[in-house]
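*** Backbone structure tokens ***
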Amino acid sequence: MEKRKRRDPHHSWAEPFKIKMVELLKMTTPAQRKKTIEEAGFNTFLLKSRDVYIDLLTDSGTNAMSDRQWAGLMMGDEAYAGSENFYHLEATVRKYYGYKYVVPTHQGRGAENLLSRITIKPGDVVPGNMYFTTTRLHQELAGGTFYDVIIDEAHDPASLHPFKGDIDIAKLEALVKKFGAKKIPYICVATTVNMAGGQPISMKNLKEVRKFTSKHGIKIFLDMTRVAENAWFIKTREHGYADKSVAAIVKEICSLTDGATFSAKKDALVNIGGFFAVNDKKLYDEASNLCVVYEGLHTYGGLAGRDMEAMAIGIVESLTDDHMKARIGQVIYLGEKLMDAGIPIVRPIGGHGIFLDAKAFLPHIKQDNFPAQTLAAEIYIDSGVRSMERGIVSAGRDKNTGKHNYPKLELVRLTLPRRVYTQAHMDVIAESIECVHDRRKKVRGLKMVYEPKYLRFFQARFKRA
């Protein structure tokens, strides 16, 4: 009898957990979904959760907590001041991220508000590796102007550059020459870059940025919402890091910055929470004082003690290699199925989801008719899968001219919550997108009929053009 070859334990992967509780999902018909999306103004943010089958709207706060995190909720010290859970969170941040001071916030944008208000003056410019919606808005509300200094490859969905989140040093140099270093309060470095398709920045590039900022006296603040995912890509793509743990790489990333904003609703696997972290005592004092105004006392920042406890536990879980291998592995599984079917996506596959190239998917729809918004609606009608737009609607309007910003990337984001869905769900998603792709020439665009003042992609309404 032929001896079977021993299977390589590293050849494939499986989730490093087992399921002990399930949430039942509602199944609907295409006719029901068509009526529902029309009532929601063709905006997937305005759909009711009960009408969604597989929810890929976001990975923010939609993750499944572990048994240890749930147990941590029972250890909540709900004292108004000086909660034990805050000190556990503070110690965890210091140990795993290395920052000296921590101010908890209700979520990431609370931290963005604190950072913007204490560092930006009217007329300042803030460079970053591609904008993010809430980050840019807080910078603008504080009187600053965002400047994109990401490498050009990040704006090309087909580029296979392994680190499309890298910053172009020449673009930084040009800004310093034009405005002067004193007009640049900090450089915002996102790990990973959401709007580019979950693309990472390399350690090599971050070290170059640190060298540049040290020369010019400019601070670096990290948007570390998905820093563990970025670390995984450094581990698997960058020379010299294959044998280092995700936790060690994350600590090195943080060591090259002056502080960070963090939405714990992503990497840290909780449903609510975030923090502002910094090494400068003066900035910490200002932030903790401002926290009292906008969030709550600086030892709870708008969170219950139990939420801070779950966050501290989730941070540790997020930094394990087994967790990250499975997390990114599921994203890659879906991406490869779509590529095999000829579906245009942002490449290389990013960290927290798959980004469909709506311009290539629906080339007959002009950007003014919102191809990504249209595609997200069509996918929902086909299968009940909820995704979201990351294109002209998300880009908003120029604050000076009032005209649409026209991003080069017109994307639909299929964001995978952590530890929530199975591979069978990924198969359903891929099959649905293939069905929409087969009938793509029949799809009609949209026109906007209601536009809110801020962050319009959350609440705008549309109808068929």
